[in-house]
Give the backbone structure.
Amino acid sequence: MFKEYPVSGAGLGLRRAFIGSLAESIPEQIDFMEVAPENWIDVGGKFGRAFRKVSEQVPVVCHGLSLNIGGVAPLDEAFLHKVKQFLETHKIRIYSEHLSYCADMGHLYDLMPIPFTEEAIKYVVKRIKRVQDILGQRIAMENASYYAAPGQEMQEIDFINAVMEEADCYFHLDINNIYVNSINHKYDAEKFLKALPGDRIAYAHIAGHYVEEEDLRVDTHGADVIDPVWKLLDVAYEHFGVFPTLLERDFNIPPLNILLKEVDTIKNYQTQHSSNDSIRKKQS
């Protein structure tokens, strides 16, 4: 679907804990940054000025927290118009959200699983199309982590593919969520990954998680990325080609220089696969 990706290379989620240093100079490893619009819309003062400096130096993407695409409450269209203005003001490259729901009569402050049913597909697709109409652009939907599958009538992979196709939206690939779900729901992570709509990928996330039990992983974004998750990213690049990938870290945030080591790891995988692709093209 993409003639070119909205951003390129390796990215890092922007956090207030280290925005001051980044506003002055973006480290060379960081090709793009990501923010949740909810955390920055209408923000002024020193943080607003710092964000403006960052957005003027490096491409920015948005990953939302409260769209509630699978919820029963009406879409918050007033909020969406604020998002649209934010995207335009800061020249945001793409807006993505979670394929889940997060509110009912009030905000649940968590991401809850949408039932994997035909009825839910139709409902979610209609809401995604409405969001895209308001924003005047395609959005990207992310495969979410989940710990129960209420009312399940089909496999997760079939649900995701149907939503992406029928809504004609982009896909936001979360590598860690595949790994976490594969442990919790006992499926083959690589097989699942390869069945995803690679031609719709806008960009990807990679992150750490918490080991609650041998057969239970919790998606926290509060730890270093582990080797099996890096391996899954390696498989994804081999299967789909190199795509933009961003490091998420929301809790237990270490110093910036530590985060940059993981950004470097992303870039190393991208360089390796780009080189391999070049060799294959010369040999063909």
Observations:
- The mean pLDDT is 91.
- The first strand starts at residue 10 and ends at 13.
- The domain at 10-283 is CATH 3.20.20.150 (TIM Barrel).
